[in-house]
Amino acid sequence: MVRTVFIKKSTLDHITCYCMKKKPYEACGFLLGSHEAETIYADEFIPVTNIAENAVKSFVMDPAVMIPIVTNHSSHVKPIVGVLHSHPTAASIPSAEDLYAAWLHIPSHWIVSLQHDECYDIQVFHYYRNNFDDSCRTGSSDKISYAALTLKIFDY
């Protein structure tokens, strides 16, 4: 399981500028880079247009932009290592809707909170299917859980 995520400083700057520019709407996109054992290296952010009907509280990626990226039919040759969206008025914690729409095959999920005007908070998570439901002690195929990942910034 992934435990640590490194992000290039210029990529982090790109993300925060893009998310703030899109506020009060949720911003979304993909992070590209590399994934080695328990570590992710993110060095490129690709914004994707949010076409949700209620883009203030949710995001739906524009298929015309998203599909070429996820099927590797775009000009980007690096693998997807993260999916990102912002919470313009909420904390950077996965909502029930975030977990319902989880892309489990993507190793990291980034949430940028913009709830405080002068600063942002970015948290990175690994989503996974929890096949054991403690409440009834039986398997559950639809419960998604998450674990926080350590985020470190690099500048080389």
Automatic annotation (TrEMBL):
PANTHER family the UniProt entry points to: CYSO-CYSTEINE PEPTIDASE
Protein name according to UniProt: JAB domain-containing protein
Gene3D superfamilies per the UniProt record, alphabetical: Cytidine Deaminase, domain 2
InterPro entries assigned: JAB_dom_prok, VirAsm_ModProt
GO function terms (MF aspect): metalloexopeptidase activity; zinc ion binding
Domain JAB: 10-114
Keywords associated with the record: Hydrolase, Metal-binding, Metalloprotease, Protease, Zinc
Pfam assignment, any one: Prok-JAB
Keyword Protease: yes
GO biological process, one term: proteolysis
Keyword Metal-binding on entry: yes
